[in-house]
């Protein structure tokens, strides 16, 4: 595929894809978090600016500006996930109504943890969508909830379900690896490529545990460390979208031949 499409073509597809845009915004949000909670990074950025001593440059990376930017980036990501709960719940039903990949213990574990991952994630996305008007639209006097305390309680409930979904996803990936799924070949060939993708998703889910876990108090990490782990998971999950966009561009070019 690399000799059929250019990186620019792939980036154009990635940049116009809803999942790709959401990943880009998430990456910017995690970088903003790092700047907000790691003072040396802010100082380096200020020194690297063309006018390090100007008031404008200093104001651009002030704590108040970075805090507002991080909040705004988080809100900007929410419209891209507004109806994604439909996909998660539909996938959960498909797993529930299908036969397990195998009749052994690991096959049953894979089926039910896969179902749990998609179902819990779907519930999280439903709760997040309920806060869309209050959080993303953010017009005074317009909202589904009566107070910010109710909004925050709903957000925290959603984070708990996301955490459970990630745990189930990790267990599902371990069950797949335990069954020897994708044992043959290298990273880019056949089953080996699938095994590589399972490992990549497993690591991404483990890194992502820090985000909801820290919000609900189940994981004790500083915000700066959470931002670093969030950046790592964003890169890994962004690679999935990047590769899919490359396949779509290659398929579209092949149809025109």
UniProtKB/TrEMBL annotation:
Keywords: Membrane, Peroxisome, Peroxisome biogenesis. It is found in: Peroxisome membrane. GO terms for biological process: peroxisome fission. InterPro entries: PEX11 (IPR008733). It holds the Pfam family PEX11. GO terms for cellular component: peroxisomal membrane. PANTHER family: MICROBODY (PEROXISOME) PROLIFERATION PROTEIN PEROXIN 11B (EUROFUNG), PEROXISOMAL BIOGENESIS FACTOR 11. This is Uncharacterized protein. It comes from Parathielavia hyrcaniae. The lineage of its organism: Eukaryota, Fungi, Dikarya, Ascomycota, Pezizomycotina.
């Amino acid at each position: 595929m690399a000799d059929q499409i250019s990186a620019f073509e792939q980036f154009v597809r990635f940049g116009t894809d809803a999942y790709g845009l959401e990943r880009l915004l998430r990456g910017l949000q995690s970088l903003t978090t790092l700047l907000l909670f790691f003072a040396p990074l802010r100082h380096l950025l200020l020194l690297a600016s063309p006018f390090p001593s100007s008031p404008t440059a200093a104001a651009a990376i002030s704590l108040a500006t970075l805090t507002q930017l991080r909040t705004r980036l988080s809100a900007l990501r929410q419209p891209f996930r507004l109806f994604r709960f439909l996909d998660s719940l539909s996938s959960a039903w498909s797993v529930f109504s299908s036969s397990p990949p195998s009749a052994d213990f690991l096959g049953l574990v894979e089926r039910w943890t896969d179902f749990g991952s998609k179902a819990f994630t779907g519930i999280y996305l439903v709760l997040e969508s309920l806060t869309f008007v209050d959080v993303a639209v953010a017009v005074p006097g317009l909202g589904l909830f009566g107070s910010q305390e109710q909004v925050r309680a709903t957000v925290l409930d959603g984070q708990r379900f996301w955490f459970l979904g990630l745990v189930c996803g990790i267990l599902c990936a371990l069950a797949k690896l335990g069954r020897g799924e994708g044992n043959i070949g290298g990273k880019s060939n056949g089953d080996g490529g699938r095994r590589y993708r399972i490992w990549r998703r497993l690591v991404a889910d483990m890194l992502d545990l820090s985000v909801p876990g820290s919000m609900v108090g189940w994981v004790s990490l500083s915000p700066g460390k959470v931002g670093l782990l969030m950046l790592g998971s964003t890169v890994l999950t962004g690679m999935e979208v990047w590769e899919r966009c490359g396949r779509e561009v290659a398929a579209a070019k092949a149809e025109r031949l």
